[in-house]
Write a structure and sequence with these properties.
By secondary structure, this protein is α+β, with helices and mostly antiparallel strands. 39% of the residues lie in helices and 15% in strands. It has two domains: 38 residues, no CATH class; 90 residues, Alpha-Beta Complex (Aspartate Aminotransferase, domain 1), CATH 3.90.1150.10. Helix 3 crosses helix 4.
């Protein structure tokens, strides 16, 4: 494992953690590697159980918005007119608030932020699709 953190102002930041076959969880099955040494599964699970889960559930309550399985701090949303939705939301909030991922027809993605910002996104999407 290569420690580059000190060089870039992030002590303890590590790149890689062996091959997938070498890293196992308690059941002996291959585990997810900890990319960039940022805490791996536990950090991801804590995040998903918190604001990301709440934000996704609130988005799902908007007619025509269907959250899809997503990785990281983004939520992928299946919508009927992604370009139109992204254009309207970005004009009301900020450029790039909603983006259209390449190779995904009928989808936009939104970054999970703090609860206050997420509520503003929810209100705006609800107004735009109404």
């Amino acid at each position: 494992m290569k420690d580059l953190g000190g060089s870039f102002g992030f002590p303890g930041l590590n790149l890689g953690e062996g091959s997938r076959e070498e890293v196992t969880d308690d059941g002996g099955c291959p585990a997810q590697p900890q990319f960039l040494g940022l805490g791996g599964d536990q950090m991801q699970n804590d995040f998903e159980d918190g604001e990301k889960y709440r934000f996704s559930a609130r988005l799902a309550s908007i007619p025509g918005i269907h959250p899809m399985p997503s990785v990281g701090d983004w939520i992928l949303l299946q919508v009927e007119e992604p370009a139109e939705l992204a254009r309207k939301v970005n004009r009301r909030l900020a450029p790039g608030m909603l983006s259209i991922p390449r190779g995904m027809d009928g989808a936009v993605r939104v970054q999970v932020g703090d609860p206050r910002d997420n509520e503003l996104v929810i209100r705006t999407i609800r107004e735009v699709v109404a």
